[in-house]
Design a protein that fits this description.
Elements lengths: L2 H6 L6 E5 L12 E8 L3 E2 L2 E2 L8 E9 L2 E8 L3 H9 L15 H10 L9 E5 L2 E5 L6 E3 L6 E4 L10 E2 L4 E3 L4 E8 L4 E9 L6 E8 L9 E2 L3 E6 L2 E3 L1 H5 L9 E3 L4 E7 L4 E7 L3 E11 L2 E9 L3 H5 L16 E8 L5 E4 L6 E5 L11 E6 L9 E6 L7 E4 L3 E3 L3 E4 L9 E9 L4 E8 L5 E6 L10 E5 L14
Antiparallel strand pairs: 1-6, 2-5, 2-35, 3-4, 5-6, 7-8, 8-9, 9-10, 11-13, 12-13, 13-14, 14-15, 16-17, 17-20, 18-19, 20-21, 22-23, 23-24, 24-25, 26-27, 27-28, 28-29, 30-32, 31-32, 32-33, 33-34
Bound molecules: fe (ii) ion.
Fe (ii) ion binds next to strand 22.
Length: 478
Amino acid sequence: MNHQHAVIFDDVSETPKTKLNVEGELPAWLSGDLIRNGPGLFNFSGVKLNHWFDGMAVIHKFSFGENQVYYQSKFLQSRAYISAIREHKIVSSEFATSPKQSFIRHIYDILKGVLTDNNNVNIVKFGKYYLTMTETDNHVLVDPETLSIVRPHTYDDKIKFIINLAHPIIEEGGNLFYNLGIKFGSTSRYILYRTNVSTNNREVIAKIPTKRPSYMHTFAKTENFFILYENPLKVNPLKMLFSDKPFIKNYIWGDDPVNFIIVDKAGKIIRQFTHEQFFCFHMVNAYEYASKIYLDLIVYPNADIIKAFYLEPRVNLEDKNLVPLLRRFVLNLSDGSCSSYKPDVPGIEFPYINGAYAQKLYNFIYAVSSRNNDFSLNTLIKINLSDLNANRLWQQDDCFPGEPVFVAKPDATMEDEGVIISVIADLKNKLSFLLILDAESFNEITRINLPHLLPIGLHGSFYSDVIPANTRVWKAGI
Ligand SMILES: [Fe+2]
């Protein structure tokens, strides 16, 4: 097992609310909660999970204020988790692990949408609760103080998806949610919808038919348009119905190019663009300028990156196809042309931006990067898009950073005025620490040790006590 795998497959234990030892000086304005989600349990009696994205969800909360930090963590008490712990079995298909169940039960589960509620991908504020998400339609609300489940987040509408993305696009200070559901059938549909924290209904914006739904992890939005990117990793829903393979194994990398679908706010498809093949988990940002859409994605030449995250990797981890590359796509709405180029930066994943600059011309990307431009993500990077020579790095031997969360200073006037918070797994010292960097200089402000080593996890957000919710627009995902 390489070092990165040792970090992502680390089993964690729950931690009651614990005061951490802060030795340095935190910015006086840094007050609020960093909430994070990710897989944190892989090994338990009778169950063998195959893949990073199968691990049982654990929620981490870090509360900042008055130069103090409290930490607590709790496993999401999902049906999936409780069955795993009490009955030593998984009850519904995880990303890459199937339950042992009868064929009839399998059909029933898919038709009825009885899919996993192991929401280990993302967590965002939703009204007075936190909303936990994975890529099924079983999003769950948890209490912000206890991190216990309040209730499943059900809707009064009759819409039922198989897939519901874990990266909603959030606007209006955290009140308006856009998201993409996928319905499977003889004709499947991508369904763009919006909802509000004060309602239990989803308003459908667009229904886009497709024969073979693509695996989608994120979608993008600009001021006036939604952008879906259909990559060549696609599923035949009817075959999936009669297959006993785990979820993701039903998706096949085919010959199709990538198809960008541009939808306006009224739900009308106004353009489609094709581009040579790539695979993408994460969007960085998208904006409109002079009748063009500028779309920054983290792309791979193919979907082998999914095979790299098996507990026993199914690809050579030295393969350069596993290096995530920043690529800018320029979609010309006037003449229908589509071009792209790769800024000269090392591989990056888990991108984060100042949420105030989402859907706007922006300059700074914070991300996890690779010291040797390979599969191992062992560095934090600040990319200055207007001057790549001014990029900044943070790295330390045997340290693996999690997603760098940007927190804006309350009275900030500059895009990079604030701090970066990242949970760093320090394998040498066998513990994790919170790293606080000045976002402008990328210099270390302080680090705060955690009680134990944490897996690096997936996604999270910071919610300030001082300013309106610093919600990330695409985000927050695997
Ligand atoms: Fe993600």
